[in-house]
Write a structure and sequence with these properties.
Shape: globular
CATH architecture: Up-down Bundle
Number of helices: 20
Order of helices and strands: HHHHHHHHHHHHHHHHHHHH
Structural class: mainly alpha
Strand content: under 5%
Oligomer: single chain
Low-confidence stretches: none
Number of strands: 0
Length: about 500
């Protein structure tokens, strides 16, 4: 079944898409300066900031990638989100206040801007910009892949176009996102985040309850999976089908690596009143907890339905959520969820293309002492280029959504988390240490990933390259800091670090 068999689903998704595009047009009228385009004019309220942070973190990764990863790996996939109970507080406690105060004393629009202020090193800010571009392309690729899978499921393009279906679906998604992002910049992204975040926290809870009931209750779901030859009792064990090193790696990367995610940290530059930051952990923690229910519910129920013979085995794990919604959910609920996921992907993609474009046309030229004129114009040009590269990656990668997203998350974490989280809280961290740490994170993560994809396995089976890269990056930061002479820190930056 596709969405074409249930026109109300197409209608709901289309209406919501039009609403989102209307937000883009409205935002375009308010986007007059680079400050508007990059940080939404630094005029965003508490709930918008909180929901935008949740949306940037989750979107297609959680709503489509999560159930698909659970279908493949079992409950061990939940180690990715189990740290969500404290990550919002960790971000705010370690970084949020300092980043916002830096943006108050300096003209800071991006994470590389913050790196430059802290370390007074163009090399450090330039490397941070490269990390942002690499991570953005990969993470944006996961969003476009999610969008392509969604279009395939709803519009049935797989049956119409065969092997070229995903390429066509991804291309259509890229065109819409580019139009949207070029119009409204970050203003469009955060207000769409407000719409979709509100919707998804509601429908995720409803979908969870519906899925558990549809599967016959938790006990029957567990029994069906346990006795199935396709899944077996190991599916529901604490580690699922993953080695312990993979589970621990998931927890480490997504628990600590959160401190290096520019698409989330960037939101703290935008909040209008820094005093509202004390409420951000409550807003983000609450909304993330509700959103994760769709990962848990569909991740368990879809395998149970397959085991019960009510659903054919999936050809593509990432089809878990779309197929369940098309085959079992009430039409109105399915339409709302598809519409919400569509908006989530678009708003997150908008955030990514904007931070990537900022790194390309603002941060890299600044690091090379060659600042561009007409920054807003070139920012929009860069949006097109980055989206095209990410769309190509999505169409050609062949990865699961969550796999590509995990690599991107790990790249950001390994490259940026130590230099930001430790560097903004410890005066002893030097520019040399920050540069060495970021280079270690980027090179190790990319190198190990490329070796693995070419059949050269350098790590113990189950060990995540992203976890090794993140740990090495922290180790290098501490080691070089201890061996280096302390740097001079500007007085205003030192004041921010101490308060």
């Amino acid at each position: 079944m596709t969405g074409l068999d249930r026109p109300l689903i197409i209608g709901a998704a289309s209406v919501y898409l039009l609403l989102v595009l209307a937000v883009g047009l409205w935002s375009a009228r308010r986007t007059r300066t680079a400050k508007d385009f990059w940080i939404a004019g630094q005029n965003i309220g508490l709930w918008t900031t909180g929901l935008a942070t949740t949306s940037a973190a989750f979107s297609g990764f959680v709503f489509l990638g999560g159930p698909g990863l659970t279908y493949q790996l079992g409950t061990g996939s939940l180690f990715i989100v189990v740290a969500g109970g404290f990550t919002a507080s960790l971000m705010c406690w370690v970084l949020a206040k300092r980043l916002r105060l830096l943006a108050a004393v300096r003209e800071i629009y991006t994470i590389p801007d913050a790196i430059l202020c802290r370390y007074r090193s163009r090399a450090a800010s330039g490397i941070a910009a490269v990390a942002v571009i690499v991570g953005t392309v990969a993470y944006l690729g996961s969003q476009f892949l999610a969008l392509g899978r969604l279009v395939e499921a709803v519009f049935g393009t797989r049956e119409l176009f065969g092997p070229q279906s995903l390429t066509i679906a991804v291309t259509a998604g890229v065109v819409v996102v580019v139009l949207y992002a070029c119009l409204g910049g970050m203003i469009a992204g955060v207000y769409t985040d407000l719409l979709q975040g509100s919707l998804m926290t509601l429908v995720a809870s409803v979908v969870f309850v519906h899925a558990i009931v549809e599967g016959g209750g938790l006990e029957r779901i567990a029994t069906s999976i346990s006795v199935s030859e396709a899944f077996g009792s190991s599916f529901l064990e604490p580690l699922g089908r993953v080695p312990i090193w993979t589970a621990v790696g998931f927890y480490f990367v997504f628990g600590i690596g959160i401190l290096g995610q520019p698409h989330m940290l960037h939101k703290f530059f935008m909040i209008k009143d820094p005093r509202d930051l004390k409420w951000i952990p409550l807003v983000v923690g609450f909304t993330q907890t509700l959103c994760v229910l769709i990962w848990l519910g569909l991740g368990l129920v879809v395998p149970a339905l397959v085991a019960q013979g009510r659903l054919a085995p999936l050809m593509q794990p990432d089809d878990a959520a779309p197929i369940y919604l098309l085959e079992f959910a009430p039409t109105l609920l399915a339409g709302l969820v598809f519409a919400g996921i569509l908006a989530a992907i678009m708003s997150t993609a908008d955030s990514f293309v904007n931070i990537g474009a900022a790194a390309l046309v603002r941060d890299l030229p600044k690091a090379l002492s060659r600042e561009l004129k007409r920054e807003l114009f070139w920012g929009r040009v860069a949006v097109v280029g980055i989206a095209a590269v990410a769309g190509t990656l999505a169409a050609l990668s062949g990865d699961l959504i969550a796999t590509l997203g995990t690599f991107a998350f790990g790249t950001f974490g390994a490259a940026l988390a130590p230099a930001l989280a430790i560097g903004l809280n410890w005066h002893r961290v030097t520019a040399k240490a920050a540069v060495a740490s970021m280079l270690t994170g980027i090179i190790l993560n990319l190198g190990l990933e490329l070796f693995a994809r070419n059949g050269v396995v350098l790590l113990k089976p189950g060990v995540l390259t992203t976890a090794v890269s993140l740990a090495a990056s922290f180790a290098v930061l501490f080691l070089v800091s201890w061996l280096s002479e302390p740097d001079k820190i500007d007085e205003d930056v030192a004041f921010v670090m101490d308060h």
